[in-house]
Design a protein that fits this description.
101 residues, alpha+beta, two-stranded antiparallel sheet
Length: 101
C-alpha cells in the first residue's frame, strides 16, 4: 500500500488555526511581561513565563540589547497557569496592577 501524503491524510479534517486561539491575550499589556521583540514586533508576552511566573526558568535569563529575556522552554512547574494560557481566568498579578492605575 502506498503511503499517503500529509495533505491526503488530513483532507477530510478541519484543522485549527492556532493564531485565532489568542493564548495569553491578557499578558499583552502586563507590566510583568517579557518584552522580547522579533523584527520590531513584541512577542515575549506569548511565553509561558514572565517576571512573576517561571521561577525555575528565571535561572536561565539572558540579556538581549540590555534587556532581560526569558528563553523559550518547555512548560515547567511555576510557569503561567493553564487558565491564563486559555484565557479562562484572570491573572491575579495583572489584575492587581490594573487596579493600581
Amino acid at each position: 500500500m502506498e503511503k499517503k501524503t500529509l495533505s491526503e491524510r488530513y483532507a477530510d479534517e478541519v484543522l485549527t488555526d492556532n493564531t485565532a486561539l489568542n493564548h495569553y491575550s491578557q499578558c499583552k499589556g502586563c507590566v510583568f511581561r517579557d518584552k522580547t521583540t522579533v523584527s520590531g514586533e513584541e512577542c515575549g508576552w506569548q511565553k509561558a513565563v514572565c517576571h512573576i511566573y517561571g521561577r525555575s526558568t528565571a535561572s536561565r535569563l539572558k540579556y538581549s540589547n540590555g534587556e532581560l529575556v526569558f528563553p523559550y522552554t518547555p512548560v515547567e512547574p511555576g510557569d503561567k497557569p493553564n487558565e491564563v494560557y486559555n484565557n479562562t481566568a484572570n491573572c491575579e498579578y495583572y489584575e492587581q496592577e490594573k487596579r493600581k492605575k
